[in-house]
Design a protein that fits this description.
With about 325 residues, the chain is α/β, with parallel strands linked by helices. The chain contains 14 helices and seven strands. The strands form two sheets. Strands 1-2-3-4-7 form a five-stranded mixed β-sheet, sandwiched between helices. A two-stranded antiparallel sheet has the order 5-6.
């Protein structure tokens, strides 16, 4: 069975993951920068300052994604601008935008700023690393380090063995991207990645967060999502595991609601058939089967009201036919 493709949500999970695990982010993607930061000193997420950089600007609001202030080992403060580009094709003026935000931050706050970028697109040849302008002896040049997520396709075993949360983020990103038109395959990979959370030795909080990132990024059609959630509940019960996250509690509640809904549907079907039997005697088996195939609660309620006034089984069948045909 083919399912309609669902647009993936890359942006929100990446931003939240970087916010919660900034140190692990730099350690995984930019180890040289990570080693120069004094992690015994608290860092700050500069959301207000980031908002000011984009206010009343033609640069737009898409870039940059995150802004942090850290202390270097030598004691100097440093601002780090993180750009996460997850579009499916290259952005023509990406380098210029990085430069614009870099100089705007320096101009407005007089702080040294380092710009870095994560490229999550599917164009292997697009690798912007600098913005430059020259005229005669004049030269302006900004070189910024990047990470291309596509490069990790050949390092899958390394990703599977890594404990760093961003190894899992990269796996989820690449498999989401690779299954853009293959929803069945995406569901399989989503299930594999969720199950891997239980074997990695993550803390409960990390499991909850990573579960949420995977769940939001790897969007599925409603039917496949329901199948996955049912499998997750069965897996949890098989392993006799407690709920691992508020999301699972929600899944369980949804399952219970679906059970209640199925009970309500069956009750409505039985009410219709019982009323028909009281009024007209034996009900044909074909009609019983047709009523039991109805899945819409509002349709069943309407038919129940009509059953009170119909003059015969044949008249009821005429009311039922348009519903079963649809």
């Amino acid at each position: 069975m083919e399912y309609e493709s669902v647009k993936a949500d890359y942006d929100a999970p990446w931003k939240e993951a970087i916010t919660l695990y900034f140190e692990q982010f730099l350690k995984f993607f930019f180890p040289d920068i990570h080693r120069q930061i004094d992690w015994s000193q608290p860092y700050r997420s500069l959301d207000k300052e980031l908002l000011e950089l984009g206010r009343d600007s033609e640069v737009g609001t898409q870039f940059p994604d995150k802004l942090f202030e850290v202390k270097l080992i030598n004691g100097n403060p440093l601002w780090i601008l993180i750009h996460v580009e997850v579009q499916s094709q290259y952005v023509k003026d990406f380098s210029q935008r990085i430069y614009q935000y870099n100089y705007r931050a320096f101009d407005q706050y007089n702080k040294p700023v380092v710009s870095i970028a994560i490229l999550g697109d599917d164009n292997a040849s697009w690798r912007p690393t600098e913005y430059a302008y020259t005229l005669g002896e004049y030269q302006l040049k900004l070189h910024f380090p990047i990470v291309k997520l596509l490069d990790y396709q050949t390092r899958w075993e390394q990703l599977e063995s890594e404990q760093n949360p961003f190894a899992l983020m990269v796996r989820a990103h690449l498999k989401t991207q690779a299954t853009n038109r293959k929803m069945d395959e995406r569901k399989q990979w989503k299930w594999i990645l969720i199950r891997s959370l239980f074997d990695r030795g993550y803390s409960r909080e990390e499991v909850e967060n990573l579960f949420r990132f995977i769940d939001r990024m790897m969007s599925l059609p409603k039917q496949l999502e329901q199948q996955l959630r049912t499998e997750l509940i069965e897996y949890r019960e098989e392993k006799q595991m407690p709920f691992i996250s508020p999301m699972e509690e929600l899944i369980q509640e949804e399952a219970m609601e679906r059970g209640l809904q199925q009970g309500t549907l069956q009750t409505q079907r039985e009410n219709i058939l019982d009323l028909l039997q009281v009024r007209f005697g034996e009900v044909p088996q074909s009609l019983v089967e047709a009523v039991n195939r109805l899945e819409d609660i509002s349709t069943l309620k309407q038919l129940h009201r009509q059953t009170i006034s119909v003059g015969s089984i044949a008249e009821f069948e005429q009311l039922l036919n348009p519903q079963t045909d649809s």
